[in-house]
Amino acid sequence: MTRQILSTEINMKDRMRVAFINAQRQLASYHKDLELRNLRHEETIHELERTKRKFHLVDDLVDAMLLQEDRQLEVDDRSQQITDVILDLEDQMERKYRDALDASHSRITTLEDVNSCRYPSSPSYEVLLTPDLPIEAKTHGTSRIYAALETYDVKGPKLLGLAQQFARAYRMISEAVARRVGTDRHRIKSVYEVVRLKQGWISIQGFVTFVMIRVLETGGGLGMQAVSKLGSEYVLWETDDVVEISGAEKIVLQGEGTWAGSVVGYKL
Questions:
Q1: Predicted structure pTM score
Q2: Alpha-carbon span 4 to 10, nearest angstrom
Q3: What is the DSSP string of the chain?
Q4: Burial bucket for residue 177 (CB in 10 Å: 0-12, 13-18, 19+)
Q5: Tell me, what's the pLDDT at 209?
Q6: Strand pairing partners for 228?
Q7: Is 168 exposed, middle or buried (0-12, 13-18, 19+ CB in 10 A)?
Q8: Its domain of life (predicted)?
Q9: Residue 14 burial (10 A CB sphere; 0-12, 13-18, 19+)
Q10: What's the pLDDT score for residue 239?
């Protein structure tokens, strides 16, 4: 009787050992499948990055084409035609980029659903580009923000050329800001406007960084100060008339002059 019980126990242990080996093999196979899906996920991301680089290259080619076209257009029609071409090309590029991004997100989401235990999905964000400054960026005192058309009347095609240049550059700046603060670049929201300012101060509280591009400065003794809780410092313009202001709560304009240019804010 004891020998029969011992034999039964040995048979049960053998069956359990076989079942355990089979389970190990199934688990190894499942891990290989997860690794393969993760590799495809990474390949999809790399393909999207390559697509983005292609779009940036196309942007550069478009700039060169517009420069050549600008030399050939009649002076009276030049500004309006360039504006129409820029807006049309930007719309086309944006639609193509969004389509590619949506398709990639769809493929990535499918893979992440399968691998949710190891690779949880993260929310997607969209970079915002609006024609007006947000409520946080507003003038106080005697400051004025003029309409873009009024500023264009002051400076003409040079200001339009600046808008054309920055329409391409704002994407690269948002990526640099994202790296600086250690976050996803899609969480960086950018706002852009062409303005003309006179005295008073501008509130920029809540912006990670604020870029100002000077096109025109008239009047004597005009100056700017960036003010924060830690103190203030004068805005020192480089030779290319572009300055970046980070960590400030407001910009104070001093003197009797007028500043015209572009302002671009980046915030989370």
A1: 0.40
A2: 10
A3: -HHHHHHHHHHHHHHHHHHHHHHHHHHHHHHHHHHHHHHHHHHHHHHHHHHHHHHHHHHHHHHHHHHHHHHHS-HHHHHHHHHHHHHHHHHHHHHHHHHHHHHHHHHHHHHHHHTTTTS---------EESS--TTSEEETT-----HHHHHHHHTHHHHHHHHHHHHHHHHHHHHHHHHHTS-GGG-EEEEEEEEE-SSEEE-TT-SEEEEEEEEEESSS-EEEEEETTEEEE----TTSEEEEES-SEEEEESS-EEEEEEEEEE-
A4: buried
A5: 78
A6: 231
A7: middle
A8: Eukaryota
A9: exposed
A10: 58
- Joined together, the tokens standing for residue 97 give 């980029």
CB of 121 within 8 A of CB of 112?
Answer: yes
Structure tokens at 240: 């290319």
pLDDT at 31: 79
Contacts 24+ apart (CB under 8 A), 11-20: none
Tokens of 247: 């960590």
Predicted confidence at residue 213, as pLDDT, reads 74
Amino acid at 109: T
Task: Tell me what pLDDT residue 106 has.
Answer: 57
